[in-house]
Each structure stands twice: as structure tokens, then as C-alpha cells.
Design goal:
49% of the residues lie in helices and 18% in strands. With 320 residues, it is an alpha+beta fold. It has three domains: 113 residues; 48 residues, SH3 type barrels, CATH 2.30.30.60; 82 residues, Alpha-Beta Plaits.
């Protein structure tokens, strides 16, 4: 149902745009030939009208208002889409700036369309002051979240803390790439291919990790255990070499291996190495370095132990 109303007020397909042209031409032709006059007189009769103060409302005014609103929304949607595509094609402007420009243009277009509708319907613009208090109450209650998300989206575009293409992680564990910052939500493409719509307010009020905000490098951690009979200096050197030989391992900061624990069944090391672009992923280089460590340990007879327990059973003498 939501997609149906969206397609009515903001057409995307060429057939909807063709329908718009046919509707406008039809109204002009039938109005010029006088076929709409009897319908107008009937709908605008006193039997189908009522007064609210000094203002007179009729079914004709309602039909006229709905028709004009739909046509204007169609026109505004087409104009907005054309300008949006035009601005997105300007590559010398940053993505966040393009989104901000598009947002400002859309607000201006819809504002002027709203004023045009009021003017065509003959509604005095000074009467809007009567509804300002009700509008404030509506925003304070029913539209609070919508207004909050809209303002949060504007703040994100100005601050540029979250931009299209950034790799982010939310407090609830949602991770992925930012694909679009809209008026109400930010669209995130997760690693499993799903698209998650996150309200803009969540980026302002909650903690967000932006892995590519100031730089794109990321650290990879690998924990490795060896048996107690191993030459620890040699094992640490092999672990470090496995990381250094990987093509995505950065030279600065250099890969480092630390002895972290004398555990029950093993001596534990932790390997730290950095990749230059975390957006390309960390799972693959981590897996490949672990394979390299396994092969080096196997070639040099270094054992990766597993927990073992010795069980001693004491049999008591059988009573006579």
C-alpha cells in the first residue's frame, strides 16, 4: 500500500510520467470545450458546501485541491529526480555535499509547491498563522520522531561524520557500508548483502564506530598457543614472519608478536598486524596469515597443543 501511494505522488516509471501528461492535456481540453462546467456547478452547489467562518468549502474545492496536489507532486517529483541525477553526476563535489544540496533543493521545491497550491485554491496565506500553533503541537507529539530524524540527517550532512561509502558499526552490532543518507534514515548495506534502514537519530544519540572516518587502516589480532617444550623466541619469529609475508600487511606500523600468557596447556602469543584499507575486509588476511602460521609450525615441528587432563583411578582393597 505504501508503494502504491508513493508511486502516485512521486512517479518513477516512464508510464507514470506519460499518464501525468495525458491527465493535464485531458483537463485542459475538456475545460476549454466546456464539458467540465456542469460538473463544476454541481460539485460547487450550496447543497455540497459548508462554511467555516468566512471561508466557504465545497466538494468542488476538495476535488480541485486533490487534483492540483497530485499533479504538482508529480511535477515536483519529476523535477526533483532530474535535478538529483544532474547533481549526482557532478563528481568534483563530495558525496555529502551533493546530498546536502539535493536536500536543500527538495525542501525549496516542495515549499514553493505548497505555497502555489494555497494560492491556486484561493486560501489566504495569512490564515496560516491560525494553524501554526497546531503545527507546533503536532511536531511536539505526533511528528516528534520524524522531525528529529530529519534534523539529525541535516546535522550528519553538515558534520560529515558519516558519509556515503564509510564502513560503520553501530552499538547493536550492525555493521556495513553507508550507501545513502536520506531525510529520515540512513541506508546501510551489511556484509551479508542486506540493506538496513537506520533512523538518523541513532547516529546522533548513540555511539557509532566509523572505521574509515579519519583513516582506513585497521588492526588484525590473532591468538596462537604453542607447547611448553617449544623455543619461544623461534616461535614468535615464525608468527611475525607469517604476517610480514602477507601482501596486505603494512610495514608501518610493523607486525608484532607478544607473549601474553602461560596457560594450563600452552604458552599463548598474540599477533598484531595492520591492513591499509579495512573496507576491503579483515577476515581474509586473518585467515591467510593463520594458514601461513600453521604451515610454518608444521615445517618446524612446533606443536599447537590442546587441553589435556590426566585421570588417575585409585582402587581400594576389596573388603574380606
Amino acid at each position: 500500500m505504501m508503494k502504491f501511494w508513493t508511486s502516485i505522488f512521486k512517479p518513477r516509471a516512464w508510464i507514470a510520467k506519460l499518464l501525468l501528461v495525458l491527465v493535464i492535456v485531458g483537463f485542459v481540453v475538456f475545460g476549454y470545450l466546456g464539458y467540465l462546467q456542469p460538473v463544476r456547478e454541481f460539485l460547487d452547489s450550496d447543497n455540497l458546501a459548508f462554511h467555516l467562518g468566512e471561508m466557504r468549502f465545497s466538494v468542488y474545492l476538495l476535488v480541485k485541491a486533490i487534483t492540483i496536489i497530485i499533479i504538482l507532486f508529480w511535477l515536483v517529483g519529476i523535477i526533483s529526480e532530474v535535478l538529483e541525477n544532474r547533481i549526482k553526476s557532478i563528481k568534483r563535489i563530495r558525496a555529502s555535499n551533493r546530498a546536502l544540496i539535493i536536500k536543500a533543493i527538495q525542501i525549496a521545491i516542495y515549499f514553493f509547491a505548497f505555497l502555489l497550491v494555497l494560492g491556486v485554491l484561493g486560501i489566504d496565506l495569512t490564515a496560516l498563522t491560525v494553524f501554526s500553533g497546531a503545527l507546533g503541537i503536532g511536531i511536539g507529539f505526533g511528528l516528534q520522531k520524524i522531525a528529529s530524524n530529519f534534523i539529525s540527517g541535516i546535522i550528519l550532512l553538515f558534520e560529515k561524520s558519516v558519509e556515503e561509502g564509510d564502513l560503520i558499526e553501530l552499538g547493536d552490532g550492525t555493521s556495513g557500508f553507508v550507501r545513502e543518507t536520506g531525510a529520515r534514515y540512513t541506508r546501510i548495506e551489511t556484509f551479508n548483502g542486506h540493506e538496513t534502514m537506520v533512523p538518523n537519530e541513532d547516529f546522533i544519540t548513540n555511539r557509532v564506530t566509523n572505521w574509515t572516518f579519519s583513516n582506513s587502516r585497521g588492526r588484525v589480532d590473532i591468538n596462537v598457543g604453542v607447547s611448553y617444550g617449544t623455543d619461544l623466541d623461534f616461535a614468535a619469529r615464525l608468527i611475525t614472519e607469517a604476517a610480514q609475508e602477507h601482501p596486505r600487511c603494512m610495514e608501518t606500523p610493523a607486525a608484532e608478536c607478544f607473549l601474553v600468557d602461560f596457560a594450563d596447556s600452552s604458552v599463548n602469543f598474540t599477533l598484531y598486524f595492520w591492513v591499509e584499507d579495512v573496507a576491503e575486509g579483515r577476515i581474509r588476511p586473518r585467515s591467510e596469515v593463520m594458514f601461513a602460521i600453521w604451515r610454518k609450525f608444521k615445517e618446524n615441528d612446533i606443536e599447537i597443543p590442546f587441553p589435556q587432563r590426566d585421570l588417575h583411578i585409585k582402587n581400594s582393597e576389596t573388603p574380606k
